[in-house]
Amino acid sequence: MDPLVFAHRGASADLPEHTLAAYLRALDEGADGLECDVRLTRDGHLVCVHDRRLDRTSNGTGLVSARTLAELEALDFGSWHPGCAPSDGDEPPDESHTRLLTLERLLDAVLAAGRPVRLLIETKHPSRYGRDVERRLVALLRRYGLAEPGPDSPVRVTVMSFSPLAVRRVHDLAPGLPTVLLLDVLPRWLPPGRLPSGTRIAGPGVGLVRSRPRLLPTLRAAGNQVYVWTVNKPADLELVLDAGVDGIITDRPAHTLARLGR
Ligand code: G3P
Ligand code: CA
């Protein structure tokens, strides 16, 4: 079966990552799902931002966690990206290209898509925020009816983390939510092919997959689903397709879909 194609931070090769425009582009292109990172603002809101600091992806500086939602809403999260530069005669990019995306606005957008969408939500730095990220995330998903989705729910959420503790917390709070343990190295404590209890899916980085040729066959032989990130290069795409993975997380969903003939 073809793997699911997830747009990493939206169609982030073409448009500013984590903006509504990048996510809507990925849905237009036919991505099966979207990946996003979430952090907490100083006043406890979940916002879609990858970096700990604001400097790379906005016109602000300093820590995301040191700002309130209102302060972050005043920043420009898009103009740094070449895909946001207005070409001659075009309208300047609208606010969907430049405004901070809250997780609530992303959930509203996927629920309004009118077709099935998978959403991979990665909690960033759970140790810094204590239990708060997972607690607030599960509470928000519950409010949207997405923590225990029924069989007909068009939107399916999976929570991911590099932290086994965070994955375990999510599992304990909402056992119906699938979880991914992200791996950028192979932890010594994890026996080959095994995942910690509470984890449903393995999420190795493509660098790890390249350096450990036995990793994917071992994980799959043990009956695990595997989602690989971030698969942008053609050679990496062929590698994971040959291995028969279940999900591909990419900045370039249109290229991956074209390779799959979709
Ligand atoms: O999809 C998993 C991947 O996003 C993890 O790495 O740094 O891009 O969040 P990062
Ligand atoms: Ca991520």
From TrEMBL:
<dbReference type="InterPro" id="IPR017946">
    <property type="entry name" value="PLC-like_Pdiesterase_TIM-brl"/>
</dbReference>
<dbReference type="Pfam" id="PF03009">
    <property type="entry name" value="GDPD"/>
</dbReference>
<feature type="domain" description="GP-PDE">
    <location>
        <begin position="3"/>
        <end position="260"/>
    </location>
</feature>
<dbReference type="InterPro" id="IPR030395">
    <property type="entry name" value="GP_PDE_dom"/>
</dbReference>
<protein>
    <submittedName>
        <fullName>Glycerophosphodiester phosphodiesterase</fullName>
    </submittedName>
</protein>
